[in-house]
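S1.2 Input.
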Amino acid sequence: MKITNICAVPISYRVPEGNKVRLGIGRAVKRDAVLVKVETNEGIVGWWESHHGRCPGAIAKLIDTTISELALGMDACNTVDVWSKIYRMQLASHGMVCFRDGAKRP
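S1.3 Output.
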Protein backbone atom coordinates (compact mmCIF):
# COMPACT_ATOMS: atom_id res chain seq x y z
CA MET A 1 0.00 0.00 0.00
CA LYS A 2 1.78 3.13 -1.24
CA ILE A 3 1.41 6.72 -0.09
CA THR A 4 -0.06 8.73 -2.97
CA ASN A 5 -0.89 12.08 -1.39
CA ILE A 6 -0.20 14.07 1.77
CA CYS A 7 -2.04 17.29 2.60
CA ALA A 8 -1.61 19.43 5.73
CA VAL A 9 -4.16 21.94 7.02
CA PRO A 10 -3.32 24.45 9.77
CA ILE A 11 -6.28 25.19 12.03
CA SER A 12 -6.90 27.51 14.96
CA TYR A 13 -9.94 27.87 17.18
CA ARG A 14 -10.88 29.61 20.39
CA VAL A 15 -10.95 27.58 23.58
CA PRO A 16 -14.44 27.72 25.18
CA GLU A 17 -14.97 30.44 27.79
CA GLY A 18 -14.35 29.38 31.37
CA ASN A 19 -11.55 26.96 30.49
CA LYS A 20 -9.00 26.45 33.21
CA VAL A 21 -6.17 25.28 30.99
CA ARG A 22 -2.99 27.12 31.91
CA LEU A 23 0.27 26.96 30.03
CA GLY A 24 3.70 28.35 30.89
CA ILE A 25 2.73 31.57 29.15
CA GLY A 26 -0.69 31.91 30.84
CA ARG A 27 -4.29 30.81 30.28
CA ALA A 28 -4.97 29.12 26.94
CA VAL A 29 -7.37 31.18 24.80
CA LYS A 30 -6.99 29.30 21.52
CA ARG A 31 -5.85 25.95 20.20
CA ASP A 32 -3.66 25.63 17.13
CA ALA A 33 -3.09 22.38 15.28
CA VAL A 34 -1.94 20.97 11.97
CA LEU A 35 -4.16 18.20 10.61
CA VAL A 36 -2.48 15.90 8.10
CA LYS A 37 -4.32 13.70 5.61
CA VAL A 38 -2.44 10.75 4.11
CA GLU A 39 -3.96 8.90 1.13
CA THR A 40 -2.92 5.55 -0.34
CA ASN A 41 -3.26 3.83 -3.69
CA GLU A 42 -5.72 1.38 -2.09
CA GLY A 43 -8.14 4.16 -1.13
CA ILE A 44 -7.31 4.09 2.56
CA VAL A 45 -7.09 7.53 4.14
CA GLY A 46 -5.46 8.32 7.46
CA TRP A 47 -5.54 11.50 9.53
CA TRP A 48 -3.09 12.63 12.18
CA GLU A 49 -2.14 15.76 14.05
CA SER A 50 1.30 17.27 13.80
CA HIS A 51 3.00 19.17 16.60
CA HIS A 52 3.64 22.69 15.37
CA GLY A 53 5.33 24.63 18.13
CA ARG A 54 3.89 28.10 17.61
CA CYS A 55 3.62 28.32 13.84
CA PRO A 56 1.07 25.86 12.40
CA GLY A 57 1.13 27.54 8.96
CA ALA A 58 4.87 27.02 8.56
CA ILE A 59 4.68 23.37 9.63
CA ALA A 60 1.77 22.73 7.24
CA LYS A 61 3.83 24.21 4.38
CA LEU A 62 6.84 22.08 5.32
CA ILE A 63 4.67 18.94 5.33
CA ASP A 64 3.01 19.87 2.00
CA THR A 65 6.34 20.39 0.30
CA THR A 66 9.44 18.75 1.76
CA ILE A 67 7.97 15.99 3.94
CA SER A 68 5.38 14.87 1.39
CA GLU A 69 8.01 14.64 -1.36
CA LEU A 70 10.09 12.36 0.84
CA ALA A 71 7.19 10.04 1.75
CA LEU A 72 5.30 9.78 -1.55
CA GLY A 73 5.52 6.29 -3.03
CA MET A 74 6.64 4.69 0.23
CA ASP A 75 4.82 1.81 1.94
CA ALA A 76 2.21 3.40 4.24
CA CYS A 77 2.35 0.37 6.57
CA ASN A 78 6.10 0.65 7.08
CA THR A 79 6.16 3.68 9.35
CA VAL A 80 9.69 2.88 10.53
CA ASP A 81 11.13 3.30 7.03
CA VAL A 82 9.03 6.40 6.35
CA TRP A 83 10.21 8.04 9.58
CA SER A 84 13.82 6.93 8.99
CA LYS A 85 13.88 8.54 5.55
CA ILE A 86 12.33 11.80 6.80
CA TYR A 87 14.74 11.89 9.73
CA ARG A 88 17.79 11.12 7.58
CA MET A 89 16.90 13.47 4.71
CA GLN A 90 15.39 16.39 6.62
CA LEU A 91 15.73 16.46 10.40
CA ALA A 92 19.25 15.08 10.90
CA SER A 93 20.70 17.63 8.49
CA HIS A 94 19.19 20.52 10.45
CA GLY A 95 20.80 20.01 13.83
CA MET A 96 18.03 17.95 15.42
CA VAL A 97 20.07 14.79 15.90
CA CYS A 98 19.52 12.82 19.12
CA PHE A 99 22.62 11.22 20.58
CA ARG A 100 22.40 7.95 22.43
CA ASP A 101 24.71 7.10 25.31
CA GLY A 102 28.19 6.38 24.03
CA ALA A 103 27.63 8.03 20.63
CA LYS A 104 30.20 10.52 19.38
CA ARG A 105 29.22 14.13 19.67
CA PRO A 106 30.56 16.82 17.36
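S1.4 Remarks. The two ends are 39 Å apart (CA to CA).
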